[in-house]
Amino acid sequence: VNEPEVQATTNRRSFVASAVLAIAGLTTFTGAWLVYIVRYIVGPRLTSAQSTALINEQNQALEAGIRLNNLRLERIQKPEIEIASLDDLSTDQAKLATDYFLQPVLVYKTADDKPVARSAVCTHLGCTVQTDFVDGKIFCPCHASYFDANTGQALSGPATVALAEEPLIIKGDKVYLVRPTEPIKIGPAQNAMEPV
Amino acid sequence: MPAEEAGWKPALPGLFKEKEVPTHRFTWAYYLGGLTLIALKLQFITGILLLLYYKPTTIEAYQSVQFITRTVPGGDLIRSVHAWSANAVVFMVFVHFASVFVLRAYRRPREWTWVSGAVSMLLLLALSFSGYLLPWNTLSVYATKVGTEIMQASTLFLPGMLAGIGGSMASLLLGGATVGQETLTRFFALHVAILPAILVGIVLVHLLLIQLHGMSVPLSETKTYTERGRPAEKFIPTFVVKDFAMWILFAAAITILAKILPYEYFLPYTLARAYDPLLPAPDGIRPEWYFFFVYYPLEIFPRAVVIIGTIVLTLAFIFAPWLLNRVPALWGKQSDESPVPTYIALAAIIIIITLTIFGAPIVTAVRGGH
Q: Among A2, B50, B107, B322, which residue has the least CB neighbours within 10 Å?
C-alpha cells in the first residue's frame, strides 16, 4: 500500500539531486569551457622565438611543396632523369626515388648485379613498400606482402600482382629513369597510369 | 497518458507539456540516445573552433594542426576533445543501437525512427573517415589510400563495365588518380559542410519522430509495467533535468580524458609525423577501431563475399524493423513473442565486439603472419 509513496519520495529525492548536480555542474563546467574557448578564439601571443620557429617551419613546408612541384615540372619537361650513381646501388637495400608517375620507385641491383627500377607502390592496397629487403625479398609493411626482388613477382601475403619494372638507362656511371613510352600498371590500379 | 499507445500526435508544444517517460527496469536505456547527441554536440562545437585555425592545403594542413595543438591556448584540449568525442559518438551510437535492438524499440510505429538512426550512423562513419584525412599525417593519408583502394577494388568481380563502378566512385572521391590536394579539399568540404548539413537534417527528423511517438516500453517489461499501473515521470522537468545531468557528467568525462590523455599519444611517431610522399609506408597502417568489423573480414574472406555481404547487411540493418517483423513469421510465431530478433541482435553484437577486439589475432591465426 505504501509503495507508490515510497517511490514518489525516491523520485523526488533523485530529482532534486539531479537538479542540484545539473545546475552546479553546468555552471562550473560551462564556465571552465567558456574561459578555454575565449582564450582559444583570441589566439596566442607569439614570442619572437615562437614566431621565428613557426616561420621556419612554414618555410620548410613551403620548400617541400616547391620541391614536389619541381619534381613534377622536371618529369613533364625531361625525357630522362638522373636518380643514382651505379656505385650507390646495392642488392639488399633500395634507393627510393620518384618516378614519372610521381609515385615512389625502388632503384637497386638484382642478384646478377643488374640495376633495376621497380615501382614501390604495393599492388595490394597502394602502400609504399620498404626499402630494406627482407631475405632478398621486397616487403610491404601494411599487410605483409612479399615480392621477389629479382622479378617483382608477388610471393606471399595479400598482394597477387607483381611490382612493375620501370625503364631506366645507364650512362657512364649514372643511372637515369626514362619516361615510359607506354602506360604502366602502378600499384593496385586496374588501369595503367600515364606518366605526368 | 500511456506513451506506448500514443502513436502519431500533432502539436509539439502541447506534447512536450503532456509528455511522460515510462519508468521500469530499463529506463536507463532512454539516456543512451541523449549521450550520443551530447557527444555529437561536442563535435560541432570543437569542430567549429578547429575551423578557426585549420588550413586545408597539403602544404599547411599538418603544420596548422600542430599550431593548434602546441601554440593556440587551449588548442590541445579542443583538438583532443574532438578526437575523443568522435570515438565517443561512434561508441555511443553502437551502444544505443544495441539497446534499441535488444529492447525492440524499433517496432511499429517507430520503423522510421530506426531508419533515420541507421542513416545517421552511416553518415557518422563517413564523417569520421573524411575527418581522419584532415591532419595530413602519415597514418591519415595511408588510411585514406587503403580505404579508397578498397572502394576501387570493390566492384572488380562484377562483369563488364560494372567492374569499374568502384574505381569511378573512388576517383570521384579522390578528385584525381591518388590522394593529393584535390582529395584534401574534397574531404574537407565533405567533413565540415556537406555531411554535417545532411546529418543535422536527419538527426532533427529522428528527434522529431521520438517526440511524436513517445518512449517505447520494452516488450519484456510491458506486462509488469501495466500491472504496476504504468508508472511514469514527467518529461519536463524531471526527465530533462536528469538527462541534462547525464550530459554534463559525460561531457566532463570526455573533457578530463582528453585533457590527461591526448589522443595522439596512441600513435607512434612514424605514423603521427607529416605525410611525405617520398617516404615508404611505416608499419601499423590500419583504420580506426570502428571499421575493424568490416576491415578484418576483408583480410580473410574473398573480397566479393565481403563486399556483397556488407551491402546486403547494411541494407538489412537500415530496414531491420520490417525484416524482423517477417522473420519470426517463418517460424510460425507472432513477431512480438518470437525470440529470433533477440538472437540476431546478440549474434551481431558478439561478432562486432569479437572482430573489434580480436580482429588482428584472428587474421594472423587464419592467414599466418600479418
A: A2
